[in-house]
């Protein structure tokens, strides 16, 4: 089980989310917790929007907790929009090309979960990827294939609908192969303007997903909490697991839900896989 | 341009070929030489037959010259049959899954060369790989695809013919896509009993390949040379570049040739791509 | 807190101890357990006696659980005597030169524990190392300094006494600097013939250490257990944490104790730091 | 032989120096050149001043030429002052703690060259380092010791004089040990405001060092050269080897010279080792 977070708001140093909270993402990657049988020590990635329209990516196949470069970088850049991911490999090699976020043009993508029986389904899934995208699949994870399927199904034009088509397609391929409950996923995506998140599983149990309350509410709840002081009103954090234990800070996103986070607020939509044809 | 070597003979420590010669493979990986514009510093691999029927593989994404583990290993094992490879990446990532040798069952495979315009041809090549082998392609090199195509075309039953079909198939796919002179390759392969080698290019210039003279001849030429003393009569080394400068030690393998090295001697065959149907 | 194991007996594949048991060392490095707050993901090492009188060392700065080279090596060598170690860094960098075992001539050494306030005491400790050994300290751990101090104090001639002098010296330097309870250590050492182990702490709580029962007893206890079938009568395993949960298999070594494991059996001695002069 | 560059001027993206020139530092690290027997593939480092008074450091033990993170970073930050270094190891391990720049407070430091017979002299050199700095020596290079000696001899107060004392001290220690011509060095240092550089060798041959001409002269020489267009008048580059072949662009710094580069211009001073007392 991997862990990830996304942020949209006024520019911050990634350090504020990756290192500073009590249960920061880096801390989570290492420290044991109920329901996390193994550490997220099989590489990590940070993607952010900086000086260009395309996201900048920093990947490593080492555990995040000991990486000095990540610590430096997290204090030396500022960004209004980022995705970060710590990986626990489930069968595929530990290498940078298997580290999230994956990117294409202005978009980037992180995933926590799996495609069941991926090795068996992989060929059928990859064949459905748009041929001109084929060679941009650099690694061997199921996650990267999901991203390329979503692009194939229209991610750049209709993000949520494309993700629903991707999920429906994976489920139909799995059904044909006799693989039950094939999809387990929380997703984080962004085009540099909006932050999208999805919580969905084919079966009854979906990995967790949380979104932070709006900053105005947080200031009412915690008027003396300094860390909220410099956040802009629209700032939001989406996380696989809460970073701090303040009551009222995190709202659990229900399973079968998509979020669209933008400066105007958070929209919550149902997420329903669309089977092809 | 990568470099590689293969050995078949009485058991030796890999050190004797990887480190000890004046122009050893490890030395070659680092030191500048005419016709080698860049170092072979993008990972390496050693494959050998030891305690099992399947080859044992040691891969690293670091330069071979600074790797202490390789140095240790090369003195701590002995083997009658090995393939070693130092890589200069040509576009694909530096990662262990892109390091040679690649293996499947009892077979392993190294390649020096390229498939021209690989990114464009890759999808068509990969689709022709036997579906049950699809998920065993772990990396993103052209070399690994060539190996899986050769298996698809019957490598385990008819090694040289399967390699000829593979070459013919790649050339036909390239021709259809308008890619001229697509194949540049020296290949080393083994099933644990025989050592196969191929020198071939679609165009006029083929990367070099050399095979050592038989040990009896070497002893006549160099009666006082100690390093030949413990070699068995059938021992042979196949190399992309000579390891030492002794006249008479290396025979250049002509372009368009396949070698079959076994205990009884070396057979030299023409290598002619076979276009499918 | 690091974890380690040592083995002396008939030749085995390291795999039998590193991977096969239910709570194998590699499994322990990753999976959460009571009393292990963080994983042992900051590098590992395997040292064994093979074709030479000096130990062969394999080190990596990656987590052991994802390392394919270690898995291969652990099946491709056999050895009658090995030390293996998985590291959780406590302040010093994650790099191969900080990975155990450390070696000098025929000896090698692993450590679980710490020197309290090491950064402050380091200079005084290092200055006491024999000048001709100074440049062989390659890394920055407290463990490597303890090993070099032990050599300085006569490890090669009187192993246990030298370790007692080392411990006494560290405690006297710490006392002068006002550092209480400076030493926490379980140690594993070997010269290629005997396996030495120490459990000691300056304060009241010492890290755990266990030694396996003799093979004859194990066979009486578990007559159908196949994994004991090929072990020679003198085979012993010394571990920081038990590898399997069989009652009667592991004897806890008391704090303040040194073990000498050899073919004739296990000798248990008191371990008492000797303050200099 | 390592290679390095320093830049002081208006803020630029490091990419402009690390990647864009014909003979960029990254290109130099890989491509063979006369007088460079081996590649600079044993790690690299980039240090720059960004959002804090202390330099930010990015180190890797991989070859620079294949590092995607360095490529990203070099376009995502801007800085008015940087040092970059590509390493060819000469005996000490390939690890991040052996990569330049080294830093202390606001200062950072790079070195090309060596201390002859370093392993033998190391203890005497390290013992002369200020005791409170002892534990901040993290790696095992001679370069890091030179830096800490310079700090010990007053680098923060009198930079050039402290470097002269450092050089004199090393030469006196070497003389006592019978080591001839002990120092070979070009140095780059900065406190975040000025850029210092030294070219010196104890013997007759000193490694090369070049400084760029002032921007006004460059624009006169090359009025249509776009790459000079956005440089501020005071911008200067100091390099171990020229990055481009434009006549008049590079001035060779004589052996036995120190440079002080600041916004007002470049001052050139004699560099003469000062033997202690």
Gist?
The first copy, chain A, is an alpha+beta fold. The first copy, chain A, has helices at residues 15-18, 25-30, 68-76, 118-127, 142-152, 159-177, 215-221; strands at 3-12, 44-48, 56-60, 79-86, 102-104, 107-115, 183-190, 195-201, 210-212, 236-239, 250-252, 257-262, 265-270. In chain A, the strands form 2 sheets. Chain A has a 7-stranded antiparallel sheet. The first copy, chain A, has a 6-stranded antiparallel sheet with strand order 5-6-7-8-12-13.
Share in β-strands of chain A: 25-35%
Secondary-structure-derived class of chain A: alpha+beta
The poorly predicted ranges of chain A are none
Based on CA atoms alone, the radius of gyration of chain A comes out at 18 Å
Task: Output the number of helix runs of chain A.
Answer: 7
Shape of chain A: globular
The helix content of chain A is 10-25%
The average pLDDT score of chain A comes to 94
Q: Biggest interface, which chains?
A: A-C, 18 and 18 residues
The neighbouring-strand order within the major sheet of chain A is 3-2-4-1-10-9-11
The helix/strand order of chain A is EHHEEHEEEHHHEEEHEEEE
**How many E-type strands of chain A?**
13
Distance between the termini of chain A: 32 Å
Strand count, sense and closure of the main sheet of chain A?
7 strands, antiparallel
Q: What's the assembly state of these chains?
A: homotetramer
């Amino acid at each position: 089980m991997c862990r990830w977070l996304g942020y949209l708001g006024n520019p911050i140093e990634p350090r504020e989310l990756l290192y500073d909270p009590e249960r920061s993402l880096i801390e989570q990657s290492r420290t044991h917790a109920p329901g996390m049988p193994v550490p997220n020590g099989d590489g990590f990635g940070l993607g952010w929007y900086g000086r260009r329209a395309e996201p900048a990516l920093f990947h490593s196949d080492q555990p995040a907790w000991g990486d000095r470069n990540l610590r430096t970088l997290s204090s030396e850049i500022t960004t209004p929009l980022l995705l970060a991911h710590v990986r626990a490999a489930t069968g595929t090699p530990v290498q940078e090309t298997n580290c999230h976020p994956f990117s294409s043009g202005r978009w980037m993508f992180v995933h926590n979960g799996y495609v069941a029986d991926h090795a068996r389904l992989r060929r059928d899934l990859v064949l459905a990827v748009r041929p001109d995208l084929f060679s941009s699949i650099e690694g061997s994870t199921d996650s990267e294939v999901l991203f390329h399927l979503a692009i194939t199904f229209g991610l750049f034009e209709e993000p949520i609908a494309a993700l629903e088509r991707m999920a429906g397609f994976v489920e139909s391929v799995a059904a044909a192969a006799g693989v039950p409950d094939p999809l387990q996923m929380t997703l984080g995506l962004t085009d540099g303007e909006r932050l999208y998140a999805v919580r969905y599983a084919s079966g009854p149990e979906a990995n967790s997903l949380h979104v932070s309350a709006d900053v105005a509410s947080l200031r009412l709840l915690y008027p003396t909490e300094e860390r909220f002081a410099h956040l802009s009103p629209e700032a939001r954090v989406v996380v696989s697991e809460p970073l701090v234990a303040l009551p009222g800070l995190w709202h659990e996103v229900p399973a079968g839900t998509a979020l669209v986070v933008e400066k105007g607020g958070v929209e919550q939509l149902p997420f329903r896989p669309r089977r092809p044809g």
